[in-house]
Amino acid sequence: MSQTNPLLSMEHISKAFPGVVALTDAHLDVLPGEVHALVGQNGAGKSTLIKVLTGVERRDSGEILFDGRPVDFHSPQQAQNNGISTIYQEINLVPFRSVSENIFMGREPRRFGLLHWRKMHQDAEKLLQRFSIMIDVTQPLMTYNIATQQMVAIARAVSFQSKLVVMDEPTSSLNESEVATLFELIRQLKADGIAVIFVGHRLDELYAICDRVTIMRDGQTVATQFMHAIPKVELVAKMLGKALGEVRHSQTSLDASQHDIEEKVLLEAYDLRRGTRLQGASLDIHAGEIVGLAGLLGSGRSEVARAIFGADALEGGTVMLSGKERHFRSPADAIRAGIGFCSEDRKAEGIIPYLSVRENLTLAALPTLSRYGIVSREKQQQIVEQFIQRIGIKTSGPDQLVRELSGGNQQKVLLARWLCLNPKLLLLDEPTRGIDIGARAEIQSLIEEFAEKGLGVLMISSELEELTEGSDRIVVLRDGRSVATLEHAHISENAIMAAMAQDDDEESPVNKDRDEVV
Known about the structure:
By secondary structure, the chain is of the alpha/beta class. The protein folds into three domains: 8-248, P-loop containing nucleotide triphosphate hydrolases (Rossmann fold), CATH 3.40.50; 254-338 and 423-518, P-loop containing nucleotide triphosphate hydrolases (Rossmann fold, 3-Layer(aba) Sandwich), CATH 3.40.50; 349-421, no CATH class. The strands form six sheets. It has a six-stranded mixed β-sheet, with helices on both faces. A six-stranded mixed β-sheet has the order 18-21-22-15-23-24, with helices on both faces. A hairpin with a 2-residue loop joins strand 4 and strand 5. Helix 16 (407-419) runs parallel beside helix 17 (437-452). The chain starts with 7 loop residues before the first strand and ends in a 17-residue tail after the last helix. The relative contact order is 0.11. Mean pLDDT is 84; it is low at 247-257 and 512-518.
């Protein structure tokens, strides 16, 4: 890429919130037609820098030049009108409106003063064809899965005549084919001279699509380099602020061979069925064991966890806990039985954004902290302070609003919510989704620590590397059914992929050591 004047130049950017300094003299330069990666641990300042750029937050100091002129946007709409579109990690569209309405919201085509519905639908269909998405654009957005909703959000952003598109974890809800489609679109944008800021944590994706990378740590910019010039291990080292040798010797946070798995079977789930999403899923978990749950998008992974937790009613199958058959009618029943569940969607089903860290962390424990309906503030504070320190939650204090924390620290709060109850079984659905490498390693180490103390863990993840590093066994799902169980000696990414792809009439070689067929 030939050097030219930056399309975007952010220099000496500083921003502080009450009790927290988010940015200190940060900088970011993006060239025209460049795909620029922005990486760093959660809390490093990436999101705040993007919010300052797009007018969500006001900077305390610094200068922003865009397309050769100083800018100071007061809202995302103003930034969008001036050529900067943003695709957020959490989908922020209107689920009850149609797909075409979501794409053209605020700029609907009109004819004789009335909405020109046919043109809007036709334009939406034409736009989505660039993504190889063939759906009924007249249907409400909520009728489609998360991956499709994410692609609609991307389509809306790129439909503006933008010079710069900011993508915040755009692949987090996409499968491999959808990621490939997105990358092809990014290459089209690049060929058209449109720049992309790609905020992400999956290193393979960054190296596949990005030209340069800016690394942030503790609210500061620590390096900007060409992607091809910085090895992955060096990139990780700069993100963590550690010596290169230290990273090389600690890349894997979990070592399944060290787990002291008890003989006692903690959970047995057989032939779970619910609609078309669960068609006979089965698994078991021993005390002290981490069982990974693998499968492609739509294979039924989250549905298994929700069924075990009592969040979704089963139409068939058996759930046994500590040898006793259980019929959980609600999550409250499962919680009382010693089961905790961290949902994949921490925004919609996890955190309560306008409550404090203290209130969010102790939410599930309130019955044990109350007497005659009055919560013991002293006991509550003891638990909160203990887990803030133990897990390393980066916060200005227990009374800070949880919505002000980074995604990784919000995830730690949710994890602490269940761990403070001393559960028997913990169900983790994408526990490190959208979380940087540093926070991910901390969470993985925490999971291992509690497993060694006898906690049973079901870990659902889309990342094969996370499963192979952190699981004692792996159950593979396909189309709502358990198709293979990989014992520790057989665990590998190739074995997982083979199980996902095998034909129904093929015999899986990885189940033969099991007494039962799953």
